[in-house]
């Protein structure tokens, strides 16, 4: 089931909510649609977003396709591969983040060159 439409430049992706961060999900849902200028850090894009939530079930190692919130940095992050902090190829944030959703497929991001405009919106 698709919950979110994620646009990265000209690429359209879909994502589903995870169940591990209900407060962060509620805050992000209330803020949708959101977007900004994505800054690339390895195979991660992040953009400015302020949500009034603490870390929930935080981890620095995240699954491929993770959409995560970094409260202390006020950033929403998309992960699809290695970052400069990665060990053994796993997607890894610089600091612990809250995973709130997951992209269903990340192959379209593999050809991304540099940053891009990012937008998330509710489907339906």
UniProtKB/TrEMBL annotation:
Gene3D superfamilies: 2.40.100.20. Residues 4-120 form the Cyclophilin TM1367-like domain. Pfam families: Cyclophil_like. InterPro entries: Cyclophilin-like_dom_sf, Cyclophilin_TM1367. Transmembrane segments: none annotated. It comes from the Archaea. This is Cyclophilin TM1367-like domain-containing protein. The lineage of its organism: Archaea, Methanobacteriati, Methanobacteriota, Stenosarchaea group, Halobacteria.
């Amino acid at each position: 089931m698709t919950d979110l439409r994620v646009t990265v430049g000209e690429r359209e992706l879909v994502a589903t909510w995870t169940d591990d961060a209900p407060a962060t999900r509620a805050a992000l849902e209330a803020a949708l649609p959101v977007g900004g200028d994505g800054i690339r850090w390895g195979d991660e894009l992040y953009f400015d977003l302020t949500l009034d939530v603490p870390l929930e079930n935080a981890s620095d190692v995240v699954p491929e396709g993770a959409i995560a919130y970094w409260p202390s940095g006020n950033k929403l992050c998309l992960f699809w591969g290695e970052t400069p902090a990665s060990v053994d190829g796993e997607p890894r944030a610089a600091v612990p983040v809250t995973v709130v959703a997951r992209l269903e497929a990340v192959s379209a991001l593999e050809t991304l060159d540099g940053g891009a405009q990012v937008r998330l919106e509710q489907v339906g």
